[in-house]
Amino acid sequence: MGEKAGWSWRGKGLFFWIFLVGVALDLGSKAWAFHMEIPFSLGGPPVRWLLDHWLGLTHTQNPGAIWGIGGGMSGLLVVIRLVVLFFVLGFLLRMPRDRKLAHAALGLISAGAVGNLVDNLSNRAGGFTWNVAELLKSPGTVRDFIHVDLGFWPFHPWPDFNAADSMILIGVLLLVLFHPTQKKGSGKSPAASR
Asked: Is 165 one of the catalytic residues?
């Protein structure tokens, strides 16, 4: 039986482990990929192919969100990432300890948001800044490096992405597909009412 939700950090270790490992994985993989030499290409984007001609590494500076959505709105995306982190932490604090899958999903979402936010703060023309007004005027781009091209639409090619984007997507899918919802007015999850 689940415990009553309250404001508590107790039992949230899984969230923090996934968050810390996720941020390290994202920033480490970006550093590794962007230090790798990518061969020049005349017929398309330069790609270092890892698996045949469908998975490779590239260097892309993304001014938008996942898959380049919202390009040119980096300042707004910085604010959105901060707001998402605020809500995720609030949601986590109110969540019972036994909701481990949801803790893991929130850890993935938070790690992805922080990884891309670090890029926004540090990967900008003026260098690293904590000055919010300056950051909103001139936010940094996010480093994308995973290139997928399966040879058919919509994967010809798929927009470049990074580990943070993957963590956010997987975290959201876990929440949507597996997180139990409460029936209105019952105060119990569907599993508890059986």
From this structure: yes
